[in-house]
Amino acid sequence: MTEFAQLSLHVPEPAVRPGGQPDFSNVKIAKAGAVPRPEVDVAPEDIRDLAYSIIRVLNRDGEAVGPWSGMLSDEALRAGLRHMMKLRAFDARMLMAQRQGKTSFYMQHLGEEAVSCAFRKALRAGDMNFPTYRQAGLLIADDYPMVEMMNQIFSNERDPLHGRQLPIMYSSKEHGFFTVSGNLATQYVQAVGWAMASAIKNDERIAAGWIGDGSTAESDFHSALVFASTYKAPVILNIVNNQWAISTFQGIARGGSGTFAARGLGFGIPALRVDGNDYLAVYAVACWAAERARRNLGPTLIEYVTYRVGAHSTSDDPSAYRPKTESEAWPLGDPVLRLKKHLIVKGVWSEERHTQAEAEIMDEVIEAQKEAEHHGTLHAGGRPSVRDIFEGVYAEMPPHLRRQRQKAGY
Amino acid sequence: MARMTMIEAVRSAMDVSMARDDDVVVFGEDVGYFGGVFRCTQGLQAKYGKTRCFDTPISESGIVGAAIGMAAYGLKPCVEIQFADYMYPAYDQITQEAARIRYRSNGDFTCPIVLRMPTGGGIFGGQTHSQSPEALFTHVCGLKVVVPSNPFDAKGLLISSIEDPDPVMFLEPKRLYNGPFDGHHERPVTPWSKHELGEVPEGHYTIPIGKAEIRRAGSAVTVVAYGTMVHVALAAAEDAGIDAEVIDLRSLLPLDLDTIVQSVSKTGRCVVVHEATLTSGFGAEVVSLLQEHCFYHLEAPVVRVAGWDTPYPHAQEWDYFPGPARVGRALAEVMEA
Questions:
Q1: How far apart are CA A402 and CA A407, in angstroms?
Q2: How confident is the model at residue A144 (pLDDT cuts 50, 70, 90)?
Q3: What residue ranges define each of the domains in chain B, with the CATH number in brackets?
Q4: What is the largest CA-CA distance in chain A?
């Protein structure tokens, strides 16, 4: 007889399933303003606590407090609010367009608007993002034309990608937005490579990699960290922890303890957790990491703690795996409402101006949609040429592809 | 003209390319200070500095992923995967990323990378150091696949690959690294220095990707081969005393179909030889193309000679590796048909 009981496998489960009462009591939230702001040249081992806390600027009263506050002008804050509202309105229209059969697929950002919109403002022209499918805010906040995004979503005759990519997998070198891959985590290490190249060429530009909480389980996440750490690449490694990888809760990828940010510690990479629904906090932390990179101090890992309010994609039904009211119970609130409240508290915004801005933005989005639809949608109107199937596989079309193109009648 | 081994020719190609273009960078496992396990990169770090030739962590996916990012920036990475057998962790980066970046971004981003990797058997490397994965790459649109068979081609093709605007898989037959293989493993190796094709110019020259070379002219039968098997095919034709035309493909993707079709239309018979396993190997593609383009010229079924459909064995590698005897039997078969 053995002195030990039989072994049993531990399979993590979220706190609550559909039908239950949402419970985020396990999410430990620091008070706004409570987390210190270290110098950018701090030794990573001196800020280990920042991988376990949550940096916040906006308090419950809508005030900006603490050492990470005071970095944005009123004008920049109003612009930030507008970007988030625009992304939300864009999402709403495109979600409807998908339901109307105008495209095959869409992924919205509801609840996560602050992450990409604020981050973009910490970068400069020429810097490069390697985004996932949920960072369209990087484009919106950089004033990339919405109509171009819609052309891509509709795969119409003006689609800059000629109908070759899934909707929302945009590409714009000019706007520092690397062509999105559907394969998870592959681009994390590519971001590190881009940053290494910038360092090899003694350039001033930096890169940013993006990944979701679920994809941190991919081996490329770890490859990226080891490369970033080894070569001290000027890269910001972003983890958007929105709690859900389709139906799988974040505990499955994270394991039973620790945080996603803490994974940077083993690589000697400074790691910070930030309130992803706090525009000011996201911006402040992104600026801190960008400055580190620009000062040749190496990579930073940032975990954005947020919540995916909407479905994973238009093919997903979140009510099948989480309580319907879970998003309302999310303790970090709504990023748009929080920034709106802050601006009102500051006296530089009002309910009336907000309502007016919502209407203006919706008009702008509808106008862009009309123009895009004029050039076609997935199943109606103008579409890319069949000839485009064969172009651009290689810089120069090899003979076998030319034969196939001719066989197709083009 | 210098006489070089294939290793020296590969090194010379990188040296010439790095000297001409500051954007060319070389990295991989052990390639920096040590110069690579086969010494292909020896001296490059000392000459060009450690930011242009450097060692990497043991992470093939990381190596290729970083190379893709560097290419997106504007560099031209020439990367060594220590053995082709180790490229599988990077297969996702190669096939889903590198191969498609130009297409999916409509040319907004491109991926001019070269992935060098020693392939094939004949050095007692066992199942983990002897694989020939070329068919796994030729199935992927957006890649180019090159396999040299001698030092002169290795240098010219590698320079072309580094200058190519698209990702190139550069497969180096390690049986040929130090000297030519006359197809007979039991005989002593003749050094490249005694071999006509060991002559390699010191400076810059290129060999176009996508052009095959006729190594032996003949009219009775065509033998299609690449890499180490070119030498086996030549030995088999000599031994059998058959008037065989031996085509060295040099590049599998894109493939020089015209040269193959022209030859087989003339000879009416064909044997395809490769070292990789038979089933779904690259030979199947060649046979299929011949069926489509040369059917009415064929006087016998096309025959394939290939590695067996098993992992590559260590002790029995010379029974696995197609030698002149097996190719000779195939030649006799198609001649008799």
A1: 9
A2: very high
A3: 2-200 (3.40.50.970), 213-336 (3.40.50.920)
A4: 78
Lookup: tokens for B121: 């058997």
Q: How many CB atoms lie within 10 A of CB A339?
A: 28
Residue B3's contacts (CB-CB under 8 Å, 6 or more residues apart) are B192, B193, B198, B199, B200
Evaluate if pTM is beyond 0.95. yes
What residues contact A148, with CB distance under 8 A and at least 6 apart? A158, A160
Alpha-carbon span B113 to B160, nearest angstrom: 12
- Is the bond into A398 cis (omega within 30 degrees of 0)? no
pLDDT band of residue A334 (cuts 50, 70, 90) is very high
| Percent above pLDDT 70 for chain B | 100
How confident is the model at residue B180, as a pLDDT? Answer: 82
Q: Is the ipTM of this complex over 0.90?
A: yes
The position carrying tokens 């998908």 is A98
pLDDT band, very low/low/confident/very high, at A1 (cuts 50, 70, 90): low
- Check if the beta carbon of residue A112 is closer than 8 Å to that of residue A242: yes
Percent of chain A past pLDDT 90, that is, above it, reads 97
Work out whether strand B244-248 and strand B144-146 pair parallel, antiparallel, or are unpaired: unpaired
Segment B51-62 mean pLDDT: 98
Chain A residues within an 8 Å CB radius of B75: 197, 200-201
Instruction: List CB contacts of B169: < 8 A, sequence separation 6 or more.
Output: B94, B115, B117, B134, B137, B143, B144, B145, B146
Each residue of A196-233: pLDDT tens digit?
Answer: 999 999 999 999 999 999 999 999 999 999 999 999 99
3-state SS class at A244: strand
In order, the DSSP letters of B85-130 are GG-GGGHHIIIIIITTHHHHTTTSS----EEEEEE--SSS-GGGS-
Minimal-distance CA residue of chain A relative to B100: A393
Mean predicted lDDT score pLDDT of chain B: 96
Kindly report the length of chain A.
410
Contact list in A for residue B106 (CB cut-off 8 A) is: 160-162, 164, 171, 392
A–B CB contacts, 8 A cutoff, strictly below: 146
B335–chain A Cβ distance below 8 A for any pair: no
Residue owning tokens 């001409």: B20
pLDDT higher than 90, residue B13: yes
Most A-contacting residue of B27, B29, B102, B106 (CB-CB within 10 A), to test interface: B106
Out of B51, B105, B142, closest to residue A200 by CB: B51
